[in-house]
Structures are given as structure tokens and as C-alpha cells.
Amino acid sequence: MMVLTLLTKQIDGEFKVYWKTGLRRGGELKVDLGEQYDKLPEQQKPIAAELYAIHHLLSVKEVMGSNRSGNGLQIRVSKGAIKKLQKQRSTKHSLYSLTRFLLTRY
């Protein structure tokens, strides 16, 4: 089982997502949500930042390998709302578009 662990913090108005895979490989990803997410409620912005980071790490940087599916992959998130969004049991409808990649690929 391969594990991706994330922790999101907001520091001085900027989102930083700390991630690791295993004991040695990890890093920090600065996330700028951009103007399209300015209308999100403040409590939803860290969730959006973490979802963006998950997508970037898995699909762009491919930290868990290329052409990867969700088999044998566990993602440990710091925001419990992400689990509800992935299961489509959340009331945060404005964030569903950010979880589409989790539903179709991972």
C-alpha cells in the first residue's frame, strides 16, 4: 500500500500544503487558488487548496508514479470534508468540481 499524507496550513493569507510519501520523500507546495475561488467561504478555501495539491501531486508531479490508478493507494488528508466530498455526501456543493479527478481516476 502506497500512502500520500497531506497537511494544509494557511500562513499570512497563503496556503501551504505539506506532503510526504513514506519516511523520506516529501515537501511543501504553495497553493494560490486564484480569483475564481475568491467567492468561496473562508472555511472552504483550505479544503480547495488541499484538493488542488492532491491533484497536482498525483497527476502533474506524479509523486506516486506515472499512469497511476487508485489501486493500492491511500491518501491521508487533513480536512475531513474531502472524504465526504469524495463519497458525494457533502453539503459543500461548490467544491464538487474539484473532486472530479478523485471520482474518475483515483
Strand-pairing-aware structural class? alpha+beta
Strand content: 25-35%
Mean pLDDT: 86
Shape: globular
Radius of gyration: 13 Å
Question: Explain this structure to me?
Answer:
The structure is a single chain. By secondary structure, this protein is α+β, with helices and mostly antiparallel strands. It has one domain. Helix content is 25%, strand content 27%. It has helices at 45-60, 81-86, 100-104; strands at residues 2-11, 14-21, 25-31, 73-76. A four-stranded mixed beta sheet has the order 3-2-1-4, covered by helices on one side. The model has no long low-confidence stretch (mean pLDDT 86).
What's the structural blueprint in terms of helices and strands?
Elements: E1 2-11, E2 14-21, E3 25-31, H1 45-60, E4 73-76, H2 81-86, H3 100-104
Parallel strand pairs: 1-4
Antiparallel strand pairs: 1-2, 2-3
Short summary of the structure?
The chain has helices spanning 45-60, 81-86, 100-104, and strands at residues 2-11, 14-21, 25-31, 73-76.
Jot down its keywords:
single chain; 106 residues; alpha+beta; 3 helices; 25% helix; 27% strand; globular
